[in-house]
């Protein structure tokens, strides 16, 4: 009986310590800008590599929902439920675009830095730039940029869990 209690306590400690390191629960989310209220979307729900990532009205669709896949070091690769592709910097490094997942690519890895009140700054790991809407007024289909950190609410994002069917 004593052996069982020790094993049970060790199991509880393992579960508790694992949750301490999890920054964001692995699940599917819409990524919502704090200022504009717009979400990250694959433009025109196009599944081809190179398709721009744009701001879009918040809807419960697969093309605006991202599966958070945690890397070994606590960052994330974001996989579209619609296309099963991910976000990456465009060839000029200034905007985000849809790309085929390359598990070894640091360009497709993002750090979610807590910004208070359940919001995050989203930093693209390799270039060290932050996900930023091109238009602070929230115009639909405007590109999403990668820019230097501004310490501004325009670079803050909330996560809204969702499980779309279309």
Task: Give a brief outline of the structure.
The protein is mainly beta and about 170 residues long. It contains one helix and twelve strands, in the order αββββββββββββ. Strand 6 and strand 7 form a beta hairpin.
Give a written overview of the molecule.
It is a single chain. The protein is mainly beta and 166 residues long. It has a single domain, classed as Trefoil (Acidic Fibroblast Growth Factor, subunit A) (Trefoil). It contains one helix and twelve strands; from the N terminus they run αββββββββββββ. Strands 1, 4, 5, 8, 9, 10, 11 and 12 form an eight-stranded antiparallel β-sheet that branches. A hairpin with a 6-residue loop joins strand 6 (86-89) and strand 7. Pfam families: RicinB_lectin_2 (PF14200). Keywords: Lectin, Signal. InterPro entries: Ricin_B-like_lectins, Ricin_B_lectin. Residues 1-18 form the signal peptide.
Q: Helices and strands in order, then pairings?
A:
Layout: H1 2-21, E1 28-33, E2 39-42, E3 53-56, E4 66-70, E5 76-80, E6 86-89, E7 96-99, E8 110-116, E9 119-124, E10 129-133, E11 144-147, E12 156-161
């Amino acid at each position: 009986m004593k052996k069982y209690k020790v094993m049970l306590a060790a199991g509880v400690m393992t579960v508790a310590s694992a949750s301490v390191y999890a920054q964001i629960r692995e699940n599917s989310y819409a990524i919502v800008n704090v200022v504009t209220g717009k979400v990250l979307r694959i433009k025109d729900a196009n599944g081809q590599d190179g398709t721009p990532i744009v701001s879009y009205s918040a809807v419960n669709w697969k093309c605006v929902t991202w599966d958070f896949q945690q890397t070994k070091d606590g960052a994330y690769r974001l996989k579209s439920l619609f296309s099963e592709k991910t976000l990456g910097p465009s060839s000029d490094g200034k905007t985000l675009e849809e790309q085929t997942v390359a598990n070894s690519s640091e360009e497709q890895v993002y750090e979610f830095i807590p910004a208070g009140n359940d919001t995050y700054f989203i930093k693209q790991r390799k270039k060290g730039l932050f996900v930023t809407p091109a238009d602070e007024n929230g115009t639909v289909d405007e590109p999403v940029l990668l820019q230097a950190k501004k310490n501004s609410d325009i670079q803050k994002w909330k996560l809204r869990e969702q499980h779309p069917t279309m």
